[in-house]
Each structure stands twice: as structure tokens, then as C-alpha cells.
Input
Amino acid sequence: MRPAELNPLFAQTTRLAGVGPKIASLIEKIAGPSLVDLILTPPISFIDRSKRPTVAEALVNQRATLRVQIERHEPSSDRRRPYRVLCADETGFISLVYFHARADYLEKILPEGSTRLVSGTITDHNGAKQMAHPDHVVDPDKPEDMPLFEPVYPLTAGLTQGVMAKAMRGAAQRAPDLAEWQDLPWLNKNGWPSWLKAIQSMHAPESAADLSPASIARQRLAYDELLANQLALALIRRSRKKSKGRVFQPASELRAKANAALPFSLTGSQEKVLSDIDKDMQGPDRMVRLVQGDVGSGKTLVAFFAMLNAVEASAQAALMAPTEILARQHLSSLTPLADACGLTLSLLTGRDKPKQREANLNGIERGYVDIVIGTHALFQESVRFKDLGLVIVDEQHRFGVRQRLALSEKGADGEAEPHILVMTATPIPRTLALTAYGDMDVSAITEKPPGRKPVTTRIIPLERLDDVVAAVARSLQKGEQVYWVCPLVEESEVLALTAAEDRHAHLKQHFGDAAGLVHGKMPGVEKDAVMSAFYRGDLSILIATTVIEVGVDAPNATAIVIEHAERFGLAQLHQLRGRVGRGGKAGACLLLYKSPLGETSKARLEILRETEDGFRIAEEDLRLRGAGDLLGAAQSGLPQFQVADASAHSELLKAARDDAALILETDPNLSSSRGKALLTLLYLFRRDDAVKLLSAG
Ligand code: ADP
Ligand code: MG
Output
């Protein structure tokens, strides 16, 4: 149960004065549903009213706070014209401008002949300075009525700074003083304030330095967040390790059969990762391992060999892919090997016909099926395994820690739980890997199968579309195949679809029926039909939205054209590029951009031209864009931090990892007084899932 002292923070934002359901839903977009989310949203800039320029010094289109004499009121006779109040200081004139003004009110706050401090944005009106609707008008004898510094928060359409700032103030006022969860010597060493002081100071910036991630308030709050993240992962990891593992010896007989059927041998890197897996599966603990390997590094085969360990011991294995297309591809690439080994594979997706599904489920429950390949449909209640020994999740970056937690509970009753192997093609910078995968052991396939030809990458402006089409035509003449990717349009799937359809129509004029179209909005059956036609070679150019992104393998594809490459994340472009050059022929990747291209966008695309090393690309992407944008973070399964910044706070992240390990070593049940405060910290960052593992023992 969440500690009662946190309850005020977990109240809905509608509790705040001035926040109704409509404003709350806008605030939710920026921050979140509760007061705690508001409190943890840092300001992005601030207004400084501490300097007092003269009217002559005040710059147009900037905010200024002026001390002026009120000269004359000029009410308007016409509702469409504004009410003007003419003001001056020794250096010049400025008028205050009010639309739909109430004369009596303005006369009261701006009496003629008085002196006033007025604050707002200066604009130009036919060469004269004016200020429309000042934010503040105060008597210079009561300067305390005007805040000298005011934080500025991120906004969304319909949400104004005034409303947001007021909600923030309301939320911050309700923040309780909480018992310290950080180690005191560590706090003192860093000169960090208490949590409450840090919150208050984060929301009261008075200089650019105060807004920086390096400010002591931000550091403290970032460290809180990172510690909550690392502590939660450490708890999850510990509880997984606690469950006993099934003991599986490395499959000898089946492995020999599979090796005999393969036209090549495993790379050194594949062997190394497999030996990590073998060790885990033989050991007393349950395996929870992540295999990182760039596109084309041969993860599928490693997965298959791992599954053989379970199958040779008469247990079952399940391989889960993020999309139906990929599940089918795994099925077709593994079927020959499974046949050679005398094993039964089956495919389980959300789209199976009822009869077929029933037969399939029956086979799985009775144990006739050795290896089940599927989508997340694999983990529905109705799927019962006779004896599930190993679960493999492919292309894991679509799943987060929470999903991994959910999927680990499918073993036979009373037995040890199945081993878990997660495979990802998304190279994640080391720092981020810590935040996302701190709950697992990690192996990396660092080497690619021999014979891979490099992929030449070129960066081309969209204006040269005709040249690109001509180059594609030359490839097709040689009997090669080409992908043509149209980007996702963030704001609108409909627009994205139109773009892809238009391009398809355009390319059809050149290539006729050899051009096919596939997109995410197509019914699954149609999508599969188009994809299979491409694998068979019936289509030679495939126009696609990003549905082809992950893992799909067409060895004859030698080129990929990506339109509006500047809109994609680097990791995503790298993934897409990995689609070509798989069949031993040199590949080409043409990145089309819309000019003009900004400096950063250009630098980003250049990185792709320079290297095919996925890890380097990921590091650079992180450096150039920051963690928030990496991989289109929302659907990436990477944790989203509120205050912490994995790039700016990477040193703190490492410290938090060590801190979390030490905490669990010295206080395994978090029962000391610091331990109790740490529980509060976990709840504060909504890691109730991890807390539950603790109380379960
Ligand atoms: P990914 O890591 O992207 O999932 P895949 O497992 O799809 O990569 O492998 C890509 C291609 O490389 C496949 O066609 C596969 O048959 C081939 N491959 C895998 N391992 C080897 C190897 N050791 N030697 C040669 N080719 C290999
Ligand atoms: Mg793969």
C-alpha cells in the first residue's frame, strides 16, 4: 500500500483550483494525471523581471518590465479598436493596449498621473512601442505584488502559461516534506538539498544555470528518479533469480542434426552467446538474459539452438515476435531446420481460424508441439503448455520491463518457471541499457556472419527524385529487389497512408505491376499476401510504411530508398538499412531528405553514411537528440524519465546502479529506516510492481 503521506501527491490535478476536466486532460498530455507528475515537470525557461530598462532601451518583441508615468487614457469609441493608456518615462513614450477593456477597471489600476511598474511583451505599432495586455501592473510601492522571476513550463494547444503556472504553484504547495531516502554522506558530498527544497528550487529558477540539468536541485531529483529505476530493476532481477531454473543440458543430438543441415557454421560471436545461454540453462538459477545483436547478426539461429536445449529434454519452447509478419518469417526460416531435427513447429497468432486455433492449442497442451512461434497471442490465458521450458522474445524493444514481468508466468504449475531469453536488434547505448535492461543479464553478438557486403549509404535531396527512380530501374533490370519506405507522419496516420499510396501510384507508372504496397492499416491477410509476393519475387519493388522495420528478411533486396529520412530516428534508419545487403550482394541505402536540412539533421544523417556500427550510431543519436527522442521513445519500451536525462546524468546513473546493489545487499527487505524511506521513493515513482515483489518475500 502506498504510504499515506504520498496521498496528496497522487490526487488528480482536477483537485487544483482552476483545473477542470478539460484543463486536466491538457495537463495530462504535458505532465501526467496527478499532482506528482506536475511537480516533477521541470520548467523550460523563466521570466526575469529583475532588470528595469528604460522605454528607449526596451526591445521590440521581448518581455520587459518598465517603470512608467501614466499620462492619459484614450478609451475607444469603437468596440473593434482597443483602449489605449499612454505612458512615458524620461526616455520616451509607450502605450498600453487593451481590447474589450473595462474603463472603470483600467482607471482604477492605472490612475492618470501615477507611476506604475508594467510588465509584458513590447511590440511595434507603426513605429511606436506598445504593450498589449501587460502581465502585471503594480504600484512601485508594492513591488511584492509582482514576482521578479517566474518559471515557464512546456505547453500544449489550449493550455496557457498562466493556467499551467497556477496549477504548478498549487501542486508545489501541497508537496509534503518526506523522510530522507538518500544516504546522508552522499547528499552532503554533492551538496544536495532535501527533496522538498529541491522541488521548490527547481520551480523557482532565477538564472540559466538553475535550468540546467547540472543544477544541484535537478541533480538531486534526477538521482532520486534514477535510484528508483535502478532499485526497482534490482528487485525484479532478484525475484526472478530467486525462482529455481529448470536444468537443461546443452542439446547434443539435436544440435548435431541442426549443424549438419546448416550450409554454414555459427560465427564465433554466436558460439560465445550460446555458451552464455548454455551456462544459464544448466545452472541452478532461472535464466533471464538479453541478447543484443545488430540487424543481420544471426540472432534467430542462436534462439533456435537455445530452444533445442529445452526440446531435447522433452520440454517445449516458445518464440514470440512483435508482429505477425515476423512470426511467419521465423516459421518459414526455421521450418527446414526443425524438419532436419524431426521437430514439430506451430504458429499461433491472433488471426488463426477457430478450428485451426483449437487444434493448435490442443497440440500445445498435449505436448505434440515442440516449438511454438507466435505473436503476443502466445500469452493469452487460453494457451496452456504441457511443459514450457524456455520463452524467447524477439525484437524486444517493443516490450517494456512490465510486459516482461507479465510474460514470465506461463510455466507448468508447481514447476520451476521457464527460462527467459530476450533478443533485441536495437543497439542501445550502455547508459540507457542500464535503465532499460537492468533486470537482465546481457550478452552481445558483436560480429556479423561472413560474406556480408557493406551497404553504401547516400544522402540525396528529394528534388533529385527522378535520378533515384532511374537508379531503382537499373537495379530492377538486374533482377534485384528494392524497398521504398515512406515515413510515418507523427500527427496523422491518414496522411502517412496517403503519402505511401501516392508514391505507389507514382512508381506504378514506372514499374507497373512489379510495384506493391504494404502499410499498417491493411487487413493482416492482405499484408501477408503482399509480403509473400515480395519474398517470392513476384513483386520487385515494395512501397511500405515502416511496417517492414523489424527483422524481415528478403535476401534478394539490394537497395532501400527512405523518403524524408530526416524524420526518422537514427536507430530506426539503421534498422531499415539492415534490410538490404543480406544475400551476399552489395547493398545501397538512399536517404532522401526534404531541403533545407538543418545542421543537426545533416550531422545525424552523416553518421549513417560514416558507419554501419549500430552501437556507435546509437551513442551518437543519444548525444545529438537526447534520450527522450531516441527510437521514438514512446513505443520503444525504454523508460521515460521526468527529471533525469540519461545523457546529461549518465554518471549519476552509474552511481544509482551501485547504490541500488549496495542497498539490497545491506538491507534486503528495506526494513531499516532508510529502507522505509526508499519504499516511499519507489511509490513516488510508481514502481509499485517492484514493491510488490518485496512484500511477497
Ligand atoms: P537478425 O539478428 O537480424 O535476426 P537473422 O537471424 O535474421 O538476423 O540472420 C540474418 C541472416 O544471416 C539469415 O539469412 C541467416 O540465415 C544468416 N546467418 C545467420 N547465422 C549465420 C552464420 N553463422 N553464417 C552465415 N549466415 C548466417
Ligand atoms: Mg531477427
